[in-house]
Write a structure and sequence with these properties.
mainly alpha; globular
Length: 533
């Protein structure tokens, strides 16, 4: 490692020590890379109507979003494991190149099918941007300081949710939607140059055998599961193709688990789940993702269709959630780095998320803007309390040789939870609307949640008012479910064992010998830990 003083391999945990200039440059590069991936989704969502008008193929619109989500989620664990085996630097560089290649192909697409395929390639690279950036931070800073820097990545995600529409709208209006992808190229080139020149990690010379069978089964299982969840809400769960995808996921998931038990170097070492800290951290990430994504999906619908606010007004109100996330993620990250204690923030954060969800159940046509903004701020604060700490704890719960997979697991379980939460939310919405508004002469395609505002606005005024009433009831059901999931997350966070973040878990806390591997020559030696409150 090449960074002295505050950012060096275990020399000091002084969070006030100056950060070396070379590390600052690397940190900027990592943050820019994460910003690229985070902005991409929000900007493309803004541009979708224009893209459809240009390319046609409205029936394939959802694949522009789904294809990216599918490959990004499926590749997350693979990036973590392969980077543990081959070294972080070459794998990170490969992820950036794949992302940029996908961006260039998206900009050149002449049809919706080719755009979806290019988005799949882009997602294949995007799946490694956040995971590998967080893993790099774990490699170049001691455990206690990780939350300090990882909080910045949470802030970047919050910032992207605001900047996406702000940047995407004007670009689409005054230039072309293709520039949303072309803009990735110069910024990505800067990230590529910074990572190539400033990341000091050597390529691992550790002997390895890539688990290609496990990688294929994982990608296939996740792909079937995500497509099943998406298609089930769009065309119905009884559709034969939905059933086929569900059966595929049900068969491939156990096959993947069985393959991991016998693989010499599995993609996801099952022995890690014997570590209660690692297992509970993943469970909290899943629950937080489920509650968070379900709420974020439906809050704009309530603001626009129930409270009759404009898209601009609802966007400004959602900025309250982003502000809370920015403040808490940075503040909590610094506090954990200063004290080395991580137990309280996830508990407080999950409590805040649960309180916010309970508060959101009261949203209706008469709810004041002040109350809505207050609940959204509480939700953002809760997310910011949880996100940076979960990653730091997961990293500190495993040995250095498994840092990549531990980092990737938090992102994977959070995204998987988000997919499940969103699908359950849409199912609740569809059920409640169909039960409550069965007499509608023009039933809405509620599986296409992103187009629901346009569908409602096309109806007569009396039908719009009726749909708004029933949508408020449906959204209340979603928020109650999210609150229940948040309460489960509170219990799981409280049960998570505490670690001392300025140390690495003892060998006794690691997976048993049958599920672990020899560390690379440059791996850190394990040090004993003691509980922290």
């Amino acid at each position: 490692m090449a960074y002295p003083d505050a950012v060096n391999e275990g020399r000091t945990d002084d969070t006030t020590a100056p950060v070396p200039a070379r590390f600052r440059l690397l940190l900027i590069g990592l943050l820019l890379g994460v910003l690229l991936g985070a902005l991409d989704g929000t900007m493309v969502a803004v541009a979708l109507p224009t893209i459809v008008g240009d390319l046609g193929g409205i029936e394939d619109t959802h694949w522009v979003i789904t294809a990216y989500l599918l490959t990004a989620t499926a590749s997350t664990l693979l990036y973590g494991r392969v980077s543990d085996l081959l070294g972080r630097k070459p794998v990170f560089l490969a992820a950036i190149v794949i992302f940029l290649a996908g961006s260039a192909l998206c900009a050149a697409a002449q049809g919706m099918g080719t755009l979806a395929a290019a988005r799949a390639l882009q997602g294949l690279g995007g799946g490694g941007l956040l995971t590998l950036a967080l893993a790099v931070i774990a490699d170049v800073v001691p455990p206690r300081q990780r939350a300090r820097f990882q909080g910045l990545f949470g802030a970047v995600f919050g910032l992207a949710s605001v900047l996406g529409p702000v940047i995407g709208g004007p670009v689409v209006d005054h230039a072309s939607w293709r520039w949303l992808f072309l803009l990735n190229l110069p910024i990505g080139a800067v990230v590529l140059a910074i990572v190539a020149t400033q990341l000091p990690l050597p390529v691992s010379r550790r002997e390895h055998r890539l688990d290609l069978r496990g990688a294929f089964l994982l990608a296939a299982a996740v792909g079937c599961f995500l497509c099943w969840m998406t298609r089930g809400n769009e065309v119905g769960w009884s559709d034969p193709r939905s059933w086929l995808l569900g059966v595929g996921a049900a068969v491939l998931a156990p096959a993947f688990v069985l393959s991991q038990r016998s693989a010499p170097e599995p993609v996801l070492p099952l022995g890690l789940f014997r570590n209660p800290t690692f297992a509970l951290t993943g469970a909290v990430a899943f629950c937080v993702g489920a509650a968070m994504f379900a709420a974020i999906l439906f809050i704009p619908l309530v603001l626009q269709l129930v409270q009759d606010r404009s898209a601009t007004s609802s966007g400004l109100m959602l900025a309250a959630m982003t502000t809370g996330l920015l403040v808490s993620s940075v503040g909590v990250g610094r506090a954990v780095s200063r004290t080395g204690r991580h137990k309280a923030p996830p508990v407080v954060g999950t409590v805040l998320i649960t309180v916010a969800m309970l508060g959101l159940t009261r949203l209706d046509v008469d709810t004041s803007a002040g109350y809505t903004i207050a609940m959204l701020t509480v939700l953002g604060l809760g997310i910011g309390f949880v996100s940076p700490v979960l990653v730091a704890v997961a990293q500190s719960s495993v040995d250095a040789r498994d840092l990549g997979i531990a980092t990737a697991s938090v992102s994977f379980f959070r995204n998987l939870g988000g997919t499940v939460g969103s699908a359950v939310g849409v199912a609740v919405l569809t059920h409640r609307l169909s039960d409550g508004f069965w007499f509608a002469s023009a039933p809405l395609q509620t599986g296409q949640v992103s187009t629901l505002p346009d569908q409602v606005q096309a109806l007569p005024a009396s039908a719009q008012e009726a749909y708004g009433t029933y949508l408020a009831d449906a959204a209340t059901g979603v928020f109650w479910i999210a609150a229940a999931v948040g309460a489960i997350a509170v219990v799981l966070a409280a049960l998570t064992p505490a670690l001392t973040l300025n140390q690495i878990p003892a060998e006794s806390d690691q997976p048993e010998s049958g599920d672990q591997y020899e560390p690379p020559p440059n791996s850190r030696a394990a040090a004993p830990t003691s509980p922290a409150s």
